[in-house]
Amino acid sequence: MQTIKYTFQPHGDERGQLVSLEEYNDIPFRIKRVYYMYDTIPDVIRGRHAHKKLEQILVCVHGSCKIRLDNGKEKKIVVLEKPYEGLYVASNMWREMFDFSPDAVLMVFASEIYDEADYIRDYDEFLDYVEKCDDIESAEEV
Ligand code: TYD
Known about the structure:
By secondary structure, this protein is mainly beta. The protein has one helix at residues 123-141; strands at residues 4-7, 33-37, 46-51, 56-62, 65-70, 75-80, 85-89, 94-98, 105-110, 119-120. Strands 1-7-4-9-2 form a five-stranded antiparallel β-sheet, with no helix packed on it. It has a five-stranded antiparallel β-sheet with strand order 6-5-8-3-10.
């Protein structure tokens, strides 16, 4: 499974660092929503869902955490620990965020506003959903 990790351009000088993120430029979609998680309790696993339509970029702007990505066939764990790195998470991808350092701030840039109807929160339902999507794609290729 291929994962896409962006390395953003830090604009550093003797005063410190600055990262700027523009939609369609650094972020490959229109940013409709930004949210962030902090004060995450140790050993907590967040996420545990997939989205039907929404895409996102995750940036651990402070501290570190791990992201488990699962496309229904393969799983991969990605470490986020640099404030200038962003992990792209496509639609139809199960994600779990875990191993948050006590100081972690995980910022999320999302392509859609919050819509509970876009969530798949049950893992078996997710597996059924991606299988159906694969079937439709294979039928379209014929
Ligand atoms: P939740 O979906 O459980 O977070 P995650 O799955 O990423 O661990 O969201 C926690 C709460 O915040 C839940 O009550 C829904 C609410 N929420 C919003 O109101 N707007 C948002 O953009 C998000 C991501 C969550």
